[in-house]
Structure formats: structure tokens, C-alpha cells
Amino acid sequence: MKYKKAAALAAAVLMLSGCQSSKTEVNTETVNEEQAADETVESEDSIDKTITALFDQNVYCMTRIFGACHLPYEGEPVEGDNIYKVNSEFSGYSEFEEYIRGVYAKDEADRLLYDCPYEGEPMYVNVDGMLCININLAGAKGYYVDWNDCDITVNSADGEKCSFTSRGSIEEPAAVPEKKDYYADGSAVFENGQWLLEKVIY
């Protein structure tokens, strides 16, 4: 009789242990799924922030350096009658180059540094380590897009490439100016351990 009670008790303990183990496994799977979901959200947030930061720098490059305007210069020519030393936040050409290569992928950075505005005729040049500008190639263009408070939508992203759409507004000169939404598509690639824009986005 004692044997039967002991056996029954042992069986009950085994059943409870089995149930508890099963419940633990289910909870573990649930936790793993929740962690994976959290990591996905964090990853999406991270790429959104990265693309937004890159796009902000693109707007600066496009409106203050290469497109609508150029970096200011000062003093007398340092070479010929058209090469002047740039007066800006960049301490020299190497810092300027590092900045550009931190925003754009290699092919686009090379184009901006060596072939912009024309192939083999860059607007910005290196003179004894100084960042200088060829004023014969400098100019300003009308640009009417407002990127303040723009919205950026990531359309697709994996570990190598990301495509996105930016929405700003545009108000071109007219007898009756009208502000409209303005959209620009862009892409970034993961190169040398960081995300970089493939092209200048206008």
C-alpha cells in the first residue's frame, strides 16, 4: 500500500515536472519572438535615423557646397588669378574630402571631388593642403525646394542597400506662387562599414 502511494506520488511529481517544463519552453519561445520583434523595430528605427542624418548632410552639400551655392573664399589668389583659399568650417582639403566621403559612396564622392562641375575640372582643389576654389567654375543656381521638416520614407532596406523617398515642398517664382509637395527618390549603400548615399539628391 505504501509502495502504491509512493509510486503515485512519484508519477504526480513527474507529470507536474513535465507540465512545468513544457510551459517554460513555450514562454522561452514567446520571449524569443518578442526579442526578435524588438530588434526588428530597433533596426528600422536605426536605418531611419541614419538615412535622415545622411539626407540632412546631402541638403547641406547640395545647397551650400556644390549646387545652389559654393563655399565662401577670402583674400588674394593663391594660384593664378582664379584659385582662392576657402574660408569655411573645413580646416583644409583633407578634412573636406573626409567629410564628402562620409556622406557619399566612393563613385559619387570621386565625381564630386574630381569631376564636378566638369570631368577633370573640379571646383574645389588642393593647394599645399589648403581647400581652395576655382572661381571660374563657381556659380549659383536657383533652387526652390524647401526641405525643412521633410518626411523620409524608407521603401526597402537590407544589409547592403536602402531605397527611400523624401518629401519636401517647392514654390517656384510665378505671378501667383503656389507651394506644392516635392518628392525625391534616393538610395544608400552599406560601404566600408557605414551607410552612404549613392548620388546627390536634388
Structure summarized in a few sentences:
With 202 residues, the chain is an alpha+beta fold.
Q: Outline, from the CA principal axes?
A: globular
Order of helical and strand elements:
HEEHHEEEEEEEE
Which structural class matches the secondary elements? Answer: alpha+beta
Q: Indicate the proportion of strand residues.
A: 25-35%
Radius of gyration: 29 Å
Span between termini: 89 Å
What's the number of extended β-strand segments? 10
Helix coverage percent of residues?
40-55%
Strand order of the largest sheet: 1-2-6-5
Instruction: Output mean pLDDT.
Output: 84
Major beta sheet summary = 4 strands, antiparallel
Low-confidence stretches: 1-24, 34-42
Number of helices: 3
